[in-house]
Q: What sequence folds into this?
């Protein structure tokens, strides 16, 4: 029942409305999921299980009900904390489509000059079209955008914009949904029917589904050097499963 409810809410309730109210409802029931099997590394809370999440194919143990973290957020938090200098090195950061689980925590870091942007999110400091980022060249030391590229009209233009505003020597993470059974990105802009987009690309508001070889190639074509980090290899299977990282095994780290 919970799985079906989550699927309905994420499919048909506008994203901006969910962003305003979802945390209130989920945090009020988080105690129902308390336990010791799983752990959210972002806030240290432990659960007997997590909530399912996904529009077409809900994933078990995907959503931590208190922080609202998903697999990709937990994977990135661990990568930042244990395998990078993200929490120590002074940096100006551009965070596009900022996520609830990160915003207050990143804003509280004394080493970050933290800038958030989105087209319409109520959580963002600046509202703009990511195809035309309104900042000067080489403005940021770090850029992050998670599960954004599959939504944009022209992903190559957006990647070029991220490269433009990143300083030489800067880095970032740009996570996307990947079809690990297909090396090629599937994209047909003549398809406009929401049901067909959902069938082919996993959500009604997705415009493409990236392939496992093509996505790193697109990052490189924008000018980035790319490192594909295997989180399961770094953490070991036991920790990987304890943090409920699911299918978010690979982190795409880009550098300029």
A:
């Amino acid at each position: 029942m919970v799985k079906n409810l989550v699927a309905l809410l994420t499919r048909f309730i506008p994203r901006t409305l969910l962003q305003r109210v979802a945390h209130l409802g989920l945090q009020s029931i988080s105690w129902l999921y308390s336990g010791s099997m799983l752990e959210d590394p972002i806030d240290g809370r432990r659960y007997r299980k997590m909530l399912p999440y996904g529009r077409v194919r809900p994933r078990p143990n995907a959503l931590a009900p208190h922080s609202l973290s998903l697999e990709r957020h937990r994977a990135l938090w661990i990568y930042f904390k244990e395998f990078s200098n993200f929490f120590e090195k002074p940096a100006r950061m551009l965070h596009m489509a900022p996520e609830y689980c990160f915003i207050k925590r990143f804003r509280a870091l004394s080493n970050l000059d933290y800038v958030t942007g989105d087209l319409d999110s109520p959580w963002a400091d600046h509202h703009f079209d990511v195809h035309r980022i309104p900042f000067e060249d080489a403005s940021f030391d770090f850029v992050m955008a998670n599960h954004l590229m599959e939504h944009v009209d022209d992903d190559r233009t957006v990647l070029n914009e991220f490269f433009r505003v990143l300083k030489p020597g800067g880095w970032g993470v740009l996570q996307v949904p990947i079809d690990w059974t297909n090396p090629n990105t599937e994209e047909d802009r003549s398809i406009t029917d929401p049901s067909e987009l959902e069938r082919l690309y996993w959500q009604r508001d997705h415009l493409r589904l990236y392939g496992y070889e093509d996505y790193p190639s697109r990052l490189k074509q924008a000018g980035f050097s790319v490192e594909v980090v295997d989180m399961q290899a770094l953490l070991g299977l036991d920790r990987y499963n304890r943090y409920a990282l699911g299918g978010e095994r690979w982190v795409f780290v880009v550098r300029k």
